Amino acid sequence: MEIEFFHDVLCAWCYALSPRLRRLTEEFPDIKVIHRGFPLAPEPNDIVQMFGSKEKGKRDILQHWKAANMNDDEHRINAELMEQRDFDYPYSTPALLACKAAELQGGQAMHWNYFDKVQEAHLTLCRNIADFDVLTDIARELSLDVEKFSADLRGEQVKYLLRLDIDRALELGVEATPTLVANDGMLTGAVPYDSLKRWYLKVHQ
After folding, report:
1. Cβ distance 139 to 114 under 8 Å?
2. Distance CA 31, CA 19 (A)
3. Is the Cβ–Cβ distance between 64 and 112 less than 8 Å?
4. Would you call the peptide bond into 178 cis, given omega within 30 degrees of 0 as the criterion?
5. Which residues make Cβ contacts (< 8 Å) with residue 8, sequence separation at least 6?
6. How many domains does the chain have?
7. What would the DSSP string read from start to end of 77-146?
8. Whole domain around residue 140: which residue ranges?
9. Judging by beta carbons within 10 Å of its beta carbon (0-12, 13-18, 19+), is residue 105 exposed, middle or buried?
10. Tens of pLDDT along 146-171?
11. pLDDT tens for residues 96-152?
């Protein structure tokens, strides 16, 4: 059975849900997860447009981080460290395209591994995931072909693949992240593992 996982690299709630979804695939190995990028802030100026200023945007977003950290099973989200960083709060597209570049080398499994790593870089290590060098470092950590990764990240194919994901989200009526879609069922939010499992068993019938 396929589960489509709509996520964004900036989404702290996605960071909390991803390990639970991995646990589900370990318990039910017949599950195939399809990763769909769904950018919450596609353009560099989106934070300003949404919140009024970069500074207010960062303050408000970090409040969401603190709430998501309470939800995260291992409390890995470090709002206090991100408060100290002096770079602009990143936008979604560069790292989502990087996930697609990783996917071109290793399929859905590598997309997932890269997504988790880039979220760790953003939410735990508080690195600037809009920085090309940071994205390349993550590719190197995952033993990807960095030269190919860099070329793919700058190419048109990853943009096309991300556009397909966004179109798919619009087709299904996805409006938020994280959202899971399987058969005729949709689940939104970083729900506890038991709730995730119940949802899976319901839609799997």
Report:
1. yes
2. 15
3. no
4. yes
5. 14, 37, 38, 39, 40, 92, 96, 177
6. 1
7. --HHHHHH--SPPP-SHHHHHHHHHHHHHHHHHHHHHHHHHHHHHHHTS---TTSHHHHHHHHHHTT--H
8. 2-204
9. middle
10. 999 999 999 999 999 999 999 999 99
11. 999 999 999 999 999 999 999 999 999 999 999 999 999 999 999 999 999 999 999
DSSP per residue over 155-172, as a string? SSHHHHHHHHHHHHHHHH
Query: pTM of the full predicted structure?
Result: 0.97
Which residue shows structure tokens 């919140």?
51
> What amino acid is encoded at 41 in this protein?
A
In this structure, what CATH number is given to the domain that contains residue 109? 3.40.30.10
Q: Report yes or no: 8 and 180 within 8 Å, Cβ to Cβ.
A: no
The token pair that represents 65 in the structure block:
């981080």
- CA 82-121-88 angle, to 5 degrees, is 45
